[in-house]
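Sequence only, no structure available. Ideas?
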Amino acid sequence: MIDPKLRGLLLGIFCMVLVSMQACAPIALEIAGELSLAESLTVQGLLYIRQGKYSQAEPLLKRALAIYEKVLGPEHRDVARALDNLGALYAQSNYSPAEPLFKRALAIYEKVLQPDHLAVARTLNDLGALYSSQGKYSQAEPLLKRALAIYEKVFGREHLRVASVLQYLGLLYTEQGKYAEAKPPLKRALTIYEKVLGREHRDVARTLNDLGALYGSQGKYSQAEPLLKRALAIYEKVLGREHLRVANVLQYLGLLYTEQGKYAEAKPLLARAREIREKYVRQNPGN
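Reply:
I predicted one. Tokens follow.
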């Protein structure tokens, strides 16, 4: 039998725990409710980003970040995720606020997660892409290479995320005129996209366009032309004949023919590209 004194002590401890739990229950419910609200705000904000409604996404993502910081503290991984989301929003147009958000998110992830965690790779990729778009190539390259190494380690060498980083690297080298370095990552990205997505996917077309532009920049017109024509055919099939990406490829092809003195072939392509863009501006006056 249990000693009566011990039984009394245990009963007293149990009662104290029970009272404590009852006292804490409302607080726990309040915290759970706030975190649930933050998650709902995040989902809605990301939906607005996909729809291009950036002004509607911003207050939702800011409010979600404020909730996570209040409830979880400034160095929680969910705070880093919220910073990453807000950085991705600003990276669409207003680059300056994006950099400190990505850098703070990366610092948190590196502190609370393993160095080869996917969240680390994602933020490295986002920050690298941002620097590349700003022309800060020396800062972008090591970040993209590190993201690539993590993705290859976690997913293998033929994953779509690997292809995405390879494409960023290829464009980074192209923009710097490092054509010999740009070609291998772009060709490898194209191979992955074709294998995983099929030969008529929009990401295949995007990479064909990038490769075509690379060859065009080098004056290798005979190699650029079939790639651009194939990209154009895919975009027209997948996105329709009046999409802006169709206009972009038409522009590239038109300029390609112009540089070769093939003005009769260039003229209708450039005219069609202009018509698509003018129609888009008429239909989307706020953009």
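The chain has twelve helices and no strands.
Hope that gets you unstuck.
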